[in-house]
Write a structure and sequence with these properties.
228 residues; alpha+beta; six-stranded mixed sheet
Length: 228
């Protein structure tokens, strides 16, 4: 997939989520978002300058999550503190071959994933994230700055899911390169079954009297249309 196509897909996801889901949260006085991502903070010239540099400092700058969520009630247990980072991900390419599934199952076992989850794992359960990005998210989470990933997944049917990184099960170690993504970028595989639906996440983490299922479905319909 070309860089232009990936950029267009990212925009097709971000716009409905911001304009529908997070606008609803803002209008109800429940939460707001701040743009924090690389693409929002740096010019194209600055991005080009940093792209070939592999230092830890530049890697952190490039993979800081897209948004900062600020929940207006300040956070009440058992929910997370009143602020967290939010990263948007688009997942369009499920694995195709049985041997790829077996390879991921075996790697997950080797990295200590629960046997029951591994044995029931199916192709449609597997998502991906850039390995370098995952490292930044984990570092932020470990330092007390929670990070959630909101993902649009096109398979087996279009869906929106969201979860904090410390609740997501890794299926492949950080040295892995995931399936069929058309580049040399290292990717790590995730178990999509360990995510909540976006509507459940909003209900439990943002709250309020909003029908989050209807709001998220409206956003999902627009995102799906934008992926064609």
């Amino acid at each position: 997939m070309s860089f232009e196509a990936r950029t267009n897909h990212a925009a097709a996801m971000e716009a409905p989520l911001d304009a529908i889901v997070w606008k609803e949260a803002s209008q109800k006085g429940l939460a707001g978002i701040v743009n924090t991502g690389y693409e929002h903070r740096y010019t194209q010239t600055e991005q080009t300058l940093m792209k070939p540099i592999l230092t830890g400092a530049v890697r952190f700058v490039r993979y800081v999550p897209d948004r900062l969520v600020i929940r207006c009630d300040g956070g009440q247990p058992p929910r997370r503190p009143g602020t967290w980072f939010l990263e948007y991900k688009v997942m369009l390419s499920p694995i195709q071959q049985d041997f790829q599934l077996e390879k991921i199952r075996n790697a997950a076992k080797n990295h200590g994933a629960p046997i029951g989850l591994v044995e029931s794992l199916q192709k449609a359960d597997i998502g991906t994230v850039e390995t370098a990005a995952w490292g930044v998210y984990k570092s932020l989470q470990d330092e007390g700055a929670p990070v959630a990933i909101a993902a649009y997944c096109s398979y087996p049917e279009p869906r929106l899911v969201c979860e904090y990184v410390d609740q997501i099960l890794l299926l492949y170690g950080v040295e892995s390169v995931a399936h069929g993504l058309g580049s040399n970028t290292p990717y790590t595989n995730l178990d999509l079954r360990t995510f909540r639906s976006m509507s459940q996440f909003m209900h439990e983490e943002i709250g309020g009297q909003t029908d989050w299922q209807a709001v998220c479905q409206k956003a999902l319909d627009l995102i799906s249309a934008g992926m064609t």
